[in-house]
Specification:
- The chain is an all-beta fold.
- 0% of the residues lie in helices and 50% in strands.
- Strands 2, 4, 5, 6, 9, 10 and 11 form a 7-stranded mixed sheet that branches. Strands 1-3-8-7 form a 4-stranded antiparallel sheet, with no helix packed on it.
- A hairpin with a 4-residue loop joins strand 7 and strand 8.
- The chain is globular and about 40 Å long.
Length: 117
Amino acid sequence: QVQLVESGGGLVQAGGSLRLSCATSRIIFSNYPMGWYRQAPGKQRELVAAITSGGSTNYRDSVKGRFTISRDNAKNTVYLQMNSLKPEDTAVYYCKADRGSWSLDYWGQGTQVTVSS
């Protein structure tokens, strides 16, 4: 079945960096817009960054200039480079393959990112 597997999360001090990866299988990766979302305890899941199949990107305002989303179609993988991390970036980060409907989209299992002050 379709799999999206995130990795690269962990504990980092404020100002540090992490690089998240999301490896996919059993989808035609190059056809899918991809996104990174996050969910902090007690909060709704929110879009962090997205990249179209053509490579266009968009970011939520709070991460602009600090986070970079990219994709490698040869490796069926999407990345999120996170720099200058802040405690408010602490959350479980999920990747998503966009099928155009929230109920049909493919999701990974999530990876925890914790930023200490």
